[in-house]
Sequence to fold (593 residues):
Amino acid sequence: MNWKTFGAMLARDAHVARRNAIQLFLQTFLQPLLFVFIFGRVMVGSGYLPPQYKSLLLPGIIAICMVFTGIWAVAMPLIAEFQWTREIEDRLLAPIGVGWVAIEKVIAGMLQALIAGLVVIPLAWLVLRPGVEISIGSPWTFAAIILLVATFSACGGLALGCTINQQHIGLMFGMVITPMIFFGCTYYPWSALKSFPILQKAVLINPLVYASEGMRATLVPQFPHLSITAVLGALLCFDVLLLVVGLRQFERKAVS
Amino acid sequence: MVGVHTQDLRKVYSSSPPAAAAGGFAPRADGKKGKSAKVQIPALDGLSLEIHPGEIFGLLGPNGAGKSTTVGVLTTRVRPNSGQAWVGDHDVWKEPALVKRLIGVVPQRPNLDFSLTAREILLFHAAYFGIGFRQRDERANALLEKFKLTERANQMVRGFSGGMMQRLSIARAMMHNPQVLFLDEPSAGLDPQTRILLWEIIREYHQAGKTILLTTHNMDEADALCQRLVIVDHGHVIALGTPKELKASIPGGFLLRLRFGRQPADLIERLQGLAGVREVRTADTAGMDIYADRGGSLIPEIASLAASSGAELSDVHISEPSLENLFLHHTGRSLRD
Fold:
């Protein structure tokens, strides 16, 4: 393992992210904050939704923000860099195993997802206040969950980015991202699906469910949520699965 | 100094060839019909090469001959189906990270990092190779100057012209001072002035004791730069030697391509009887290729012989000894076909 090369590749990604900071900021936070404003302030303020909805909404928004930042940060550059310009080749030709180039992308994506999560908490809180009741009961559990969520998002980005072609990005949003958000228990707890028993079982294949429920379990435990053990176990499984699939796909794309 | 060699490399693509080895491959449908039938594209067919340490070696051949796939295999980007490849003492497919340290690669199509400026591309490339900050800064400045890119150094490369991108690609490949430099069609798309600049830089780099492998389908380039070259077609070697040796191996050296309106049956025999004619081949239905010791001075004799035997000479083309003729002699096809 060549740490200098690995560090230089991370530095390159950080440099590019810094250069696109404003664009990244808007892309990451604008939509969730508008959502928070409309549902948490307008709808609650005018009495269409109960005041507790504010607290219920926040963990879901953090999960969406982290997951899609991670997926986006890894998948979009990979899709572009593996196209006919083969921009990624200067890193594939760096003196390091090809798999480490993929791992570096995952680490960069995880860092971006973690930053997004940590920034959206105070931002959303500012938009929603007053009346939000969040508490981090167990910081270690919370840290474990956000780390696993960040890993899942970056590994998912790796798997998607190495599977999808540029011409299918629109399809990825329609067929993968949108259903993931709406069936990801982000705007409602999983228990709210109990009147749709088949759907309630089916959504369990959606990793975003565990991200949202995990956030809910650690930030707003007063609402119903999946058990923390189930959440940690499922996220760990998804992390490993997506990493294995992503690495395999990456190597396939990198070496013909 | 570091040499390169390959042994019996074979590669068959089961779909379209990758960007690293783009070329005019002729797809061949394999066996079964229907949806399950995969297109098999043979690219390398038992290719063995020995490139000596410190030489400029040329891989010459038409599009689809397997040149880029050979470079792909030697630069860890294309995995062969069988055979072995070494750079120095390192097996490319057993120690890829060590091999990557020794090589610099200029691909056929510039693959620059579009998210960075020209200078940053060089600096980050050096950083990937663990070169210290001060040294990489000095080297980047020197190479930008050498490739006449200093003025545009702080601009994003997305807006660069094809020639500028190509120059920057070469500068980047030299950034970590590799022992072996691979140049895949380096002067494709360059204007004549830049091509000469590039040739000078390649010669200078070679004088510093480096091994250079370049692919080209440009005979002049191979002739001007390479100490030895190999002609490849359909993924195997068809001729190997110095440009001089190779040219001397063409019978006679001169090639006269003749076209006839009408062609009597005994014409070949009568042409073979002319003084200085080494070999006569029918090129297509109405053409003949004559390999001979002399060029223009044969024409009056050919014309009178044609007239006396009732053949109608419609076109004559004379070419002097060249690698192009050599390729034609071995394959029956022009390099540009």
Notes: Chain A touches chain B at residues 2, 4-5, 8-9, 11-12, 15-16, 19, 77, 84-98, 254-256 (CB under 8 Å). Chain A has a mean pLDDT of 90.
